[in-house]
Amino acid sequence: MSDATIMTDSAMTERQAQALDDADPLRDFRAQFHIPRHHGAEMAYFCGNSLGLQPKDARAHVDEVMDKWARDAVEGHFLDPAPWMPYHELVRDGLAQVVGAQPAEVVAMNSLTANLHLMMVSFFRPDAQRNVILMEAGAFPSDRHAMASQLHFHGLSVDTHLIELEPDREDGTFSMVAIERAIAEHGDRLALVLWPGVQYRTGQAFDLKDIARLGHAAGAVVGFDLAHAVGNLPLQLHDSGADFAVWCHYKYMNSGPGAVAGCFVHERHARTDRPRFAGWWGHDQATRFRMGPEFVPTPGADGWQLSNPPILGLAPLRASLELFAQAGMPALRAKSERLTGDLEMLISAQLGNVLEIITPTSPSERGCQLSLRVAGGRSQGRALFEFLSSRGVLGDWREPDVIRISPAPLYNTHADVLRFVSTVREWQA
User: Which CATH number fits domain 62-325: 3.40.640.10, 3.40.190.290, 3.40.190.10, 3.30.390.50?
Assistant: First the structure.
């Protein structure tokens, strides 16, 4: 029996971790990333849910743009390789593959919250009867700010028109029963259901198709914030039936701090007459340069663009998408389930007195991330977090007492997982 198959349900040796990593069909992808170092040694980096690591080829794509700018100046918009005028189209097919959409349904543009506002201009159209938004309580603050400000913009009160569903499970997560009940309760008033693909603090993943079905049956529009889901979970946005979705690319998509974000608009809205905030770059390409006064949107998600995209900002996304295409989401998901599953097993068996896993145990309800509540409250939590960091094991902190650890399958290993567990045990000693 190989070392990769003899791990008990309570322990993992360095030799076993190495055997598992040697047998990993995706093992060579780690070498395609810059791994941060701590005192000369590679860190165990678990912050892909906050900022993904830099693909080594990202610099080449950025340098290509810089060289073209120096060499060709304005003509770089039209000259090969990778002319800038259609540059955003270079990431279209790759994005569509990652999120399970048709190419015309996706576009890389702006930032996540800017895209959320643009989508709400078109898809949150309150009237005398339907004027309520449903979202989860404890949402990422930017989403809540966007919802509240949109309500204020329409002259509506947050107190009466924003429904924030509280978690119904003891661990602070949501059952589908609770979501279904809330949609049914407010159905006649619901204008929009805005829900995360993965809840940022708990790491809980949701059935997007089911939520979209329930929302639409109630007569509401359904949109998703997929900041923690894109590049993490296999998505089927087109088949989900969602009206729209927004996300960022700096987390699991490894495209750099403040990377250009992404947006999905279902094909049934490709030629919608819904109001929108328009910009020249969203104008139909065939007539854009006639510079006419009337806006004629490009069919599909491209029609929501405002200005020409930041080419330097898009360049790293090309490098990341090339790696996703090579690895494939099914293989990445399979490895993710192994890494996070082993992390869960080791924590439960060895660290249960110090760490409580608040992420659902079912792989169907989570992605890479495990959210860990530290026994003893904030002071103990911060002490452990700082100890881990001092040993080159980097997760991220969420107030008041949660450490998030997210093994990303493109570059994390079983050795990283074991190192996290061993370092926590060292802190306990």
Answer: 3.40.640.10
